[in-house]
Amino acid sequence: MAKYKIDEIDHQILDMLIENTRIPFTDIAKQLVISAGTVHVRVKKMEDAGIIQGSSLTLDYKKLGYSFIAYVGLFLNNTSQTQFVLERINNIPYVTVAHITTGKFNIFCKIRAKNTTHAKEVIFMLDDIEGVYRTETMISLEESINDKKRLMHTIFNDM
Q1: Contact, 80 vs 122, CB < 8 A?
Q2: Which CATH class for the 8-57 domain?
Q3: The sheet that has 95-100: what strands, in order across it?
Q4: Under 8 Å CB-to-CB from 86, ≥6 apart: which residues?
Q5: Which of 7, 61, 78, 88 shows its CA 20 to 30 Å from the CA of 150?
Q6: CATH T-level topology, domain 68-140
Q7: Of 46, 53, 55, 47, whose CA–CA distance to 11 is shortest?
Q8: pLDDT tier at 1 (50, 70, 90 boundaries)?
Q9: How far is CA 39 from CA 9, 13, 45, 90, 148, in A?
């Protein structure tokens, strides 16, 4: 498949959608002084090219009572157990992200919990998975940077 070329209008549309995935195409069109149909066609082309994949919702986990974030590295007995362990991790809803990694850990997870006691329970759930011989945990004191726009702007400037 040919590489899709993003122009300045596409970049501005992406900028607005990253800021608010629910922004109406008519609002984007007004701000960019183009038709809503043009916005729709461009978004559809970016979806078809796989640049835009779905949309996401950002939740304020603090307000929902899940302000505790920890990162847990899992050491496996054998790398051949990776898929089995990932299937078990997928059954723990408090694990919000899991990566297969190189280096120190076999799998690296992000967990969200209510507090330290709850986090300990989640970590014990991970530790109890067959094939996991040890875990190492790092507590997040604060999420200081979570900015999807910076990378998008750098990618656009590199084109």
Answers
A1: no
A2: mainly alpha
A3: 95-100, 107-113, 68-76, 132-140
A4: 98, 100, 107
A5: 61
A6: Alpha-Beta Plaits (3.30.70)
A7: 46
A8: very low
A9: 9, 7, 10, 37, 21
Reference 17, options 7, 8, 27; nearest CA is 27
Residue whose tokens read 């501005």: 12
- Residue extents of the structural domains in the chain: 8-57, 68-140
pTM confidence score: 0.80
Q: How far apart are CA 14 and CA 144, in angstroms?
A: 23
Cβ neighbours for 139, distance < 8 A, ≥ 6 positions apart: 68, 69, 70, 119
Average pLDDT over residues 40-52: 93
Asked if residues 1 and 51 have their Cβ atoms less than 8 Å apart, the reply is no
